[in-house]
C-alpha cells in the first residue's frame, strides 16, 4: 500500500499491467490464506507472525537498496561525512513511518478479526471501500471532489448495503462486515498519510524510501500484534505449524513478493491505471474463495459485489478525468 500514492509520469506498458495484475492476484488469494489460517490459530497470532515475516522478507531489499545508494555516492565522489548525512533516515520519514505503521496496525488487525464472522470474498470487497473513503476525507483536507466521484461513492454504498445486509432482516448486520468497514477506514487514513508524506517530501526536498517505510510498518505492526498475542491469546506452536502454509503465503507472497511487484510494476504504469489494477484484488479474492474454499454468495450479495466493483471503476474514471484537467 505504501507506494500507491507515489506519482509516476511514465506511460502504462504491458509489463506494468502484467506485474500489477499479478500483484492483485496474490493479494486477492491471500484473503483465502487468511481465512484458512484462522481455522487453526487466532487472529493476533496469525497476523503477528505473518506481518513480521513480511518484514524479514523485505529486509534484504532494504539492505541492498541502501548499499546501492551508498555505492552511488562513493562513485560520485562524496566525502565520508556527506555520505553519512545522506544515508541518515530523515526526521520526516521517521515521523511518517511511525504514523503509517500505527494506522496499518489497526487496519490489518481489524481485517483479520473480520474473518471470525464473515467470508474472504465479502471482506475483500468491503475492504475496497477505501477507494471511496479517500475522496470523502479529502474534502476535509480542502480537496475538490468531482461529481462523478460522489456518484461512485453513492453507488458503492448501495453495493455495500446489498453485500452486508439481508433484505429479509434489516437488523441482521454481520459483525465481520462492520470490522471490515472499519479496516477500510484505516486504510483510507493510511493512503492519505502517504499522500501527505510525499507532498511534504517533495516540498522539503527530502528523500523518502518506500521500501524502508514498508519494512518499518511491517516490523512495528508485527511487533505490536505479537505483544497482544501473548496478552490476549494462547499461542500453540503445534497449531502454528498446522497453519504454516497460509502464514507463509500471507507473509512471504502477500507482504513481501506482492509489495515488491507493486513497486516494480508502478514504474511502468500510470498511477490511476495502477490503482485500478490493484483494486482488482477484490475480484480475485472472490474467485479464489469460490475455487478453494467453495464459498458461495446469495443473489443480493453477488449483486452487491458487482455494484461495488462498478463503483470502483467509476471512481477511477473520475480520478483519471480529474488528472487530465
Topology:
Elements: H1 14-37, H2 43-75, H3 80-87, H4 91-114, H5 120-127, H6 130-139, H7 147-164, H8 175-204, H9 210-232, H10 237-242, H11 244-265, H12 271-278, H13 281-293, H14 299-323
Helix pairs in contact: 1-5, 1-11, 1-12, 1-13, 2-4, 2-9, 2-11, 4-8, 4-9, 5-8, 5-13, 6-7, 6-8, 7-14, 9-11, 12-14
Write structural notes for this entry.
By secondary structure, the protein is an all-alpha fold. The protein is 78% helix and 0% strand. Residues 1-10 have low confidence and may be disordered.
Please give a quick description of this structure.
By secondary structure, the chain is an all-alpha fold.
Radius of gyration: 20 Å
Fraction of helical residues: over 70%
Number of strands: 0
Report the sheet-strand fraction. under 5%
Average pLDDT works out at 82
Structural class: mainly alpha
Treating each run of at least 4 consecutive H or I residues as one helix, how many helices? 14
Distance between the termini: 26 Å
Shape: globular
How are helices and strands ordered from N to C?
A: HHHHHHHHHHHHHH
Largest sheet: none
Question: What are the low-pLDDT stretches, counting only 5+ consecutive residues below 50?
Answer: 1-10
Amino acid at each position: 500500500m505504501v507506494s500507491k500514492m507515489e506519482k509516476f509520469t511514465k506511460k502504462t506498458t504491458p509489463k506494468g499491467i502484467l506485474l500489477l495484475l499479478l500483484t492483485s492476484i496474490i493479494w486477492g488469494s491471500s484473503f483465502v490464506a487468511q481465512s484458512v489460517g484462522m481455522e487453526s490459530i487466532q487472529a493476533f497470532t496469525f497476523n503477528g507472525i505473518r506481518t513480521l515475516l513480511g518484514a524479514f522478507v523485505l529486509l534484504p531489499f532494504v539492505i541492498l537498496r541502501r548499499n546501492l545508494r551508498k555505492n552511488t555516492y562513493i562513485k560520485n565522489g562524496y566525502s565520508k561525512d556527506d555520505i553519512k548525512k545522506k544515508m541518515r533516515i530523515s526526521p520526516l520519514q521517521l515521523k511518517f513511518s511511525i504514523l503509517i505503521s500505527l494506522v496499518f496496525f489497526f487496519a490489518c488487525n481489524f481485517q483479520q478479526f473480520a474473518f471470525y464472522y464473515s467470508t474472504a470474498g465479502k471482506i475483500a470487497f468491503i475492504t475496497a471501500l477505501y477507494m471511496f473513503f479517500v475522496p470523502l476525507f479529502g474534502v476535509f483536507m480542502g480537496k475538490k471532489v468531482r461529481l462523478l466521484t460522489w456518484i461512485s461513492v453513492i453507488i458503492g454504498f448501495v453495493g455495500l448495503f446489498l453485500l452486508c445486509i439481508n433484505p429479509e432482516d434489516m437488523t441482521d448486520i454481520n459483525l465481520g462486515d462492520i470490522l471490515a468497514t472499519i479496516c477500510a477506514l484505516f486504510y483510507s487514513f493510511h493512503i492519505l498519510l502517504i499522500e501527505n508524506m510525499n507532498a511534504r517530501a517533495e516540498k522539503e526536498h527530502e528523500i523518502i524510501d518506500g521500501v524502508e517505510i514498508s519494512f518499518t510498518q511491517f516490523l512495528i505492526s508485527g511487533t505490536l500484534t505479537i505483544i497482544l498475542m501473548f496478552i490476549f491469546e494462547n499461542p500453540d506452536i503445534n497449531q502454528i505449524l498446522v497453519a504454516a502454509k497460509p502464514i507463509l503465503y500471507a507473509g512471504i507472497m502477500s507482504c513481501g513478493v506482492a509489495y515488491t511487484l507493486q513497486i516494480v510494476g508502478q514504474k511502468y504504469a500510470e498511477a490511476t491505471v495502477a490503482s485500478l489494477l490493484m483494486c482488482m484484488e477484490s475480484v480475485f479474492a472472490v474467485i479464489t474463495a469460490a475455487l478453494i474454499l467453495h464459498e458461495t454468495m446469495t443473489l443480493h450479495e453477488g449483486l452487491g459485489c458487482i455494484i461495488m466493483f462498478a463503483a470502483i471503476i467509476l471512481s477511477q474514471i473520475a480520478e483519471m478525468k480529474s488528472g487530465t484537467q
